[in-house]
């Protein structure tokens, strides 16, 4: 039973790697951004709530994201395992998730941290070239990520759930490394 949480800075390749691995293992890749967009598109009760925040330019509150994650993990396809990408982002969310997984008998999760140096991330994101991706914006996003997510890395390390993977390699090398780490 594979249950994985992917951590890593923006531009580390989390989404790509999570997707590849999920296909390889035949389990759902659960991206919180994706769930959110889907819920808003389908106008589910949570989606309608989320839309009102997005429309007013607000961040979607933790509680709502947690509700969406809970709803998604309760779907039948998630019972045989999953890869979570984009959640948890902070320790409070990790604690919520831990409780939820215990309650639903879905424990045994492992956490993969795709480690990529800031300079490499900046370079990658600049070449990806989204309009709003100026170097300044990217560095700010990295600062926020490091501040919010660094404590998560310690949180999972303390619980012996952390797997470190060097994300500063070719796509294929990272994929292979991930498959090996998880198989062991």
Blueprint (SSEs and pairs):
Blueprint: E1 2-7, H1 14-25, E2 29-31, H2 32-41, H3 45-55, H4 62-73, E3 81-85, H5 91-103, E4 110-115, H6 118-128, H7 135-158, E5 162-166, H8 171-183
Parallel strand pairs: 1-3, 1-4, 2-3, 4-5
Helix pairs in contact: 2-3, 2-4, 6-7
What is the structure about, briefly put?
The protein has helices at residues 14-25, 32-41, 45-55, 62-73, 91-103, 118-128, 135-158, 171-183; strands at 2-7, 29-31, 81-85, 110-115, 162-166.
Short key terms for the protein model shown above:
184 residues, five-stranded parallel β-sheet, Rossmann fold, alpha/beta
Protein described:
By secondary structure, the protein is α/β, with parallel strands linked by helices. It has one domain (2-28, 81-183): P-loop containing nucleotide triphosphate hydrolases (Rossmann fold, 3-Layer(aba) Sandwich). It contains eight helices and five strands. The protein has a five-stranded parallel beta sheet, sandwiched between helices. Helix 6 crosses helix 7. The longest helix is centred in the last third of the chain and has 24 residues, at 135-158. It starts with a strand and ends with a helix.
């Amino acid at each position: 039973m594979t249950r994985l949480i992917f951590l890593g800075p923006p531009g580390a390749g989390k989404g790509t790697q999570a997707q590849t691995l999920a296909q390889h293992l035949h389990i759902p890749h659960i991206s919180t951004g994706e769930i959110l967009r889907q819920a808003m598109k389908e106008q589910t009760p949570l989606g309608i709530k989320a839309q009102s925040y997005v429309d007013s330019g607000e961040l979607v509150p933790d509680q709502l994201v947690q509700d969406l994650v809970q709803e998604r993990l309760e779907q039948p396809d998630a019972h045989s395992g999953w890869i979570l990408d984009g959640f948890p982002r902070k320790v409070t969310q990790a604690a919520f998730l831990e409780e939820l997984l215990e309650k639903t008998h879905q424990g045994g999760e492992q956490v993969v941290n795709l480690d990529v140096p800031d300079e490499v991330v900046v370079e990658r994101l600049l070449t990806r070239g989204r309009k709003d991706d100026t170097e300044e914006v990217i560095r700010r996003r990295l600062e926020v990520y490091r501040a919010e997510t660094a404590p998560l890395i310690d949180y999972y390390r303390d619980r012996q759930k952390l797997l470190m993977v060097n994300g500063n390699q070719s796509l294929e090398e990272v994929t292979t490394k991930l498959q090996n780490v998880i198989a062991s």
